[in-house]
Design a protein that fits this description.
Elements (H helix, E strand, L loop, with lengths): L22 E2 L2 H10 L3 E5 L8 E10 L13 E7 L3 H11 L14 E15 L7 E15 L3 H15 L13 H6 E16 L7 H4 L2 H6 L3 E4 L20 H29 L1
Antiparallel strand pairs: 1-7, 2-3, 2-5, 3-4, 4-7, 5-6, 5-8, 6-7
């Protein structure tokens, strides 16, 4: 029996309005995009500032209660930061003095957050400037953050985040962290209320009167320049004493470069194949 894809509920604040045919609400798609990003942008309201705050943070989807949960299952978002950073202090204050506003803090004193990530996968070049575009993937999550206080869950999240950067890296290093390292690091657990993704792929699309202009179509190159991140050859640190790059690291670099290249090139050709 085929698996039913779980979706986030469409809330007024999470529903994609413009070009909604590009929207996706599946947990698997949104969680995968969050996990594949190296950084997420975390937005929150600081009562001591006249402007909303946005921070780049390291985050990953996971479940402490169900460690083997699939990326398409209901998951929390774990965010890593310094113990006395603004967002950690604000979450601590919010938790100790929960707001009476049920919309601002419906989770009993947790901090409302918006988490977003975007990746460009292609430069779409059309006949006219107005039809130039990007191929891209983007995901947004809305949730409420609280500080992780359980030492076991904190270790789980720290390992999860480390291994998301490089698979198996946690186990290949000196672990567990020292008491000083544990006390200087805070982890936020974000309970997700809603989320959405927006994706675009394919080639350029121009107006018919431009497509019928043979002089224009023969003069202006149209198509897609694939965009993807390439990981370079690992450079040893000045005190490194390991002569060869470990297989797990070298293999990751090779596989990651191949995966991102294929994804961007596939996205560039997707619409062409669909029309063929």
């Amino acid at each position: 029996m085929p698996r039913q894809e779980l979706q986030y509920p469409k809330q007024p604040y999470s529903t994609v309005k413009r070009l909604n045919d590009r929207a996706n609400y599946e947990l698997e798609t949104i969680h995968r995009l969050i996990n594949e990003s190296r950084l997420v942008s975390v937005s929150f309201n600081d009562p001591d500032s006249p402007f909303p705050a946005v921070l780049p943070m390291i985050g990953v989807m996971g479940s402490f209660d169900r460690p083997s949960a699939d990326v398409g299952d209901v998951l929390d978002l774990y965010l890593h930061g310094y113990v006395s950073s603004r967002i950690m202090n604000l979450t601590r204050r919010t938790t100790s003095s929960p707001s009476q506003d049920s919309e601002a803090a419906p989770q009993g004193g947790s901090l409302p957050l918006t988490i977003q990530t975007s990746t460009i996968t292609g430069l779409v070049l059309a006949l006219t400037p107005n039809h130039h575009s990007y191929n891209y993937t983007s995901a947004t999550l809305f949730g409420h953050a609280s500080l992780v206080t359980s030492p076991d869950e904190k270790l789980y999240a720290m390992a999860l985040i480390t291994n998301q950067i490089i698979p198996s890296r946690w186990e290949k290093t000196r672990v567990p962290p020292t008491p000083a390292e544990m006390s200087s690091t805070s982890i936020l657990r974000v309970k997700i209320s809603a989320g959405s993704a927006k994706l675009h792929s394919g080639g350029p699309s121009d107006d018919r009167f431009d497509l019928d202009n043979q002089d224009l179509t023969q003069r202006v190159w149209t198509g897609v320049v694939p965009v993807y991140t390439t990981l370079g050859e690992p450079v040893p640190g000045h005190y490194n004493q390991v002569e060869q790059v470990p297989d797990y690291l070298g293999d990751f670099v090779t596989e990651q470069n191949e995966t991102t290249r294929k994804f961007s090139e596939h996205a560039a050709r997707e619409e062409v194949r669909r029309k063929a």
